[in-house]
Amino acid sequence: QVQLVESGGGLVQAGGSLRLSCAASGHTVSSYAMGWFRQAPGKEREFVAAISWSGGNTYYADSVKGRFTISRDNAKNTVILQMNSLKPEDTAVYYCAATTLPVHTIVAVTPRVDYWGQGTQVTVSS
After folding, report:
1. How many other CB atoms sit within 10 Å of the CB of residue 73?
2. Phi/psi zone of residue 120: left (φ > 0), alpha (ψ -120 to 50 degrees), beta?
3. Over the stretch 11-61, which tens digit does the pLDDT of each residue have?
4. Residue closest to 98 by CA, chosen among 12, 16, 27
5. E strand or H helix at 2, and its extent?
6. DSSP string over 66-110
């Protein structure tokens, strides 16, 4: 069983930056594809970014491309989401996700996720 714990959320002004971390425990996730999703109030959960087990392939939602960067440190069992140039519409609860399947399954219209974190709140003020 894998446990995912997110941290790094908070309140930031528009144009600012935040760095989210996802720490995995219970099992190494070095062979798992990892991703980030978010859910704003009244909206469905949506894909944000994903990274393959090796880190060699990354995917981003169009809304965050060029502003967010996903990376991973398999030695530390950690995935990072660096968020720059934040906008009020980025306000949401951000969730870390892990899958034993290839990374494209996280990016799919119906994502295949084996494990979810509990989420961390990101609020961007205008």
Report:
1. 12
2. beta
3. 999 999 999 999 999 888 888 999 999 999 999 999 999 999 999 999 999
4. 27
5. none
6. TTEEEEEETTTTEEEEEE-S--GGG-EEEEEEEESS-THHHHSSS
